[in-house]
């Protein structure tokens, strides 16, 4: 039987492919990250059995419970942390996640670096940038990025592989295009100016409402919850 989730996955993937084509990009250069905050474990299992492997969670504690109850399936999946990370949860986050997408200050970067080294692992991180300089959102302002990268360069336990953004909410995807474009330009300019080595590659941007616009502007990771799993009962974390 075709489940709702597998059908949603197929639809979202074909929308991703078409948006990539419109942007002159290859569909395989855009990864779908399934956002599972408030989503029950049965639905996550369903997504896995439909072939989904990349997932995102917003809360370390919730994630710990879910991931524990997944058993061996945990080892077949990749998990990104996409919520606001408090430093006292850094150790657990390093244990559970393959990537933390929301690093926006050096103290947090240093804590992740320390815990990653202690765990004998190299943690992927993205830097969260507040492209719109929206006072209600976290993230570095674009102007702070170069100094941040210079100071973080010595942290060998973390691999800074890209940028992430959450633009101000707007029901009209087209009005978010300038923010997506500015994150791409920031990445490209940073790579050109700093010769950041290795290069910043990833751009995590775009959610259920606006992922097609984000892909046209260069997203390499789109974070999608509602379009896969349906409306959340309460809109925490969004
Ligand atoms: C909840 C959330 C998403 C997914 O949002 P949808 O609109 O349900 O697709 C993406 N990114 C972050 C950071 C989130 O918190």
Gyration radius, rounded: 17 Å
Shape: globular
The overall strand count is 8
The tally of structural domains comes to: 1
CATH architecture: Alpha-Beta Barrel
Q: If you consult CATH, what is the topology?
A: TIM Barrel
- Beta-strand residue percentage: 15-25%
Number of helices: 9
Give helix and strand order, one letter per element, not per position.
HEHEHEHEHEHEHEHEH
The SS-based structural class is alpha/beta
CATH class: Alpha Beta
- The CATH fourth-level homologous superfamily: Alanine racemase
The end-to-end distance, rounded to whole angstroms, is 32 Å
> Quaternary state, please?
single chain
Query: Which runs of at least 5 residues are low in confidence (pLDDT < 50)?
Result: none
Can you offer a commentary on this structure?
- With 238 residues, the protein is an alpha/beta fold.
- It has one domain (4-229): Alanine racemase (TIM Barrel), CATH 3.20.20.10.
- It has helices spanning 4-22, 41-49, 60-68, 90-96, 106-118, 145-152, 177-194, 211-216, 226-229; strands at 31-35, 54-57, 78-81, 99-103, 123-128, 158-164, 202-204, 221-224.
- The protein has an eight-stranded parallel sheet.
- Helix 4 packs across helix 5 (106-118).
- The two termini are 32 Å apart.
- The model has no long low-confidence stretch (mean pLDDT 94).
- The structure holds pyridoxal-5'-phosphate.
- Pyridoxal-5'-phosphate (PLP) is lined by residues 35, 37, 58, 82, 166, 207-209, 223-227, 237-238.
């Amino acid at each position: 039987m075709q489940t709702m989730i597998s059908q949603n996955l197929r639809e979202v993937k074909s929308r991703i492919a078409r948006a990539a084509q419109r942007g002159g990009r290859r569909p395989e250069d855009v990864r779908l990250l399934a956002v599972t905050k408030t989503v029950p474990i049965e639905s996550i299992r369903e997504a896995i059995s439909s072939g989904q492997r990349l997932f995102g969670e917003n809360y370390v504690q919730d994630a710990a419970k879910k991931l524990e109850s997944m058993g061996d399936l945990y080892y077949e999946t990749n998990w990104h942390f996409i919520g606001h990370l408090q430093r006292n949860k850094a150790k657990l986050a390093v244990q559970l996640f393959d990537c933390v997408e929301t690093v926006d200050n050096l103290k947090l970067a240093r804590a992740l670096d320390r815990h990653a080294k202690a765990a004998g692992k190299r943690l992927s991180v993205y830097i969260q940038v507040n492209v719109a300089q929206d006072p209600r959102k976290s993230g570095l302002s674009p102007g702070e990025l170069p100094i941040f990268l210079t100071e973080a360069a010595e942290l060998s336990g973390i691999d800074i592989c890209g940028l992430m953004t959450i633009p101000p909410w707007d029901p009209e995807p087209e009005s978010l295009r300038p923010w997506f474009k500015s994150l791409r330009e920031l990445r490209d300019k940073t790579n050109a100016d700093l010769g950041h080595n290795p290069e910043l590659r990833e751009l995590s941007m775009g959610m259920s409402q606006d992922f097609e616009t984000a892909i046209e502007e260069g997203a390499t990771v789109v974070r999608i919850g509602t379009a896969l799993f349906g409306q959340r009962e309460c809109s925490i974390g969004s």
